[in-house]
C-alpha cells in the first residue's frame, strides 16, 4: 500500500500526536477513492485535530 503523499502531509503535525494517523489517513484515502469523497482529506488538512481524525474513524467504522 502506497500512501506516500498523504503520509508526508500527516508527518508534519498529525502523526506526532497520532502515531497511527498515517494508517488512518490511508484508510480515509482508500474510502475516498471508493466513494469519491475528496472533502474528507481536505477536512483533515484544514483542521489537523485529533478529534477530527477520531470522528472520521468512527464514521468509517460505522459505514464499513
Main traits of this protein?
single chain; 64 residues; disordered N terminus; mainly alpha; globular
Describe the structure.
- By secondary structure, the protein is an all-alpha fold.
- The chain has one domain (4-63).
- Helices cover 77% and strands 0% of the residues.
- The protein is built from five helices and no strands.
- The chain has helices at 4-10, 14-17, 21-35, 39-47, 50-63.
- The radius of gyration is 11 Å and the shape is globular.
- The two termini are 19 Å apart.
- The model is unreliable at 1-18 (pLDDT under 50).
H and E string: HHHHH
Q: Please give the number of β-strands.
A: 0
As a percent range, the share of strand residues is under 5%
Q: What kind of sheet is the major sheet?
A: none
How many domain modules?
Answer: 1
Overall geometry comes to globular
The whole-angstrom Rg is 11 Å
Helix content: over 70%
Low-confidence stretches: 1-18
The secondary structure category is: mainly alpha
Subunit organisation of the chains: single chain
**Cα-to-Cα separation, first versus last residue:** 19 Å
Please report the number of helical segments: 5
Average pLDDT rating: 60
List the helices and strands and how they pair.
Blueprint: H1 4-10, H2 14-17, H3 21-35, H4 39-47, H5 50-63
What's the short story on this structure?
The chain has 64 residues and is mainly alpha-helical. The protein is 77% helix and 0% strand.
Amino acid at each position: 500500500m502506497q500512501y506516500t503523499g498523504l503520509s508526508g502531509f500527516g508527518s508534519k503535525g498529525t502523526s506526532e500526536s497520532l502515531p497511527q494517523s498515517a494508517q488512518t489517513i490511508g484508510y480515509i484515502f482508500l474510502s475516498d477513492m471508493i466513494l469519491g469523497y475528496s472533502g474528507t482529506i481536505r477536512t483533515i488538512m484544514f483542521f489537523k485535530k485529533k478529534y477530527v481524525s477520531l470522528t472520521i474513524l468512527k464514521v468509517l467504522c460505522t459505514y464499513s
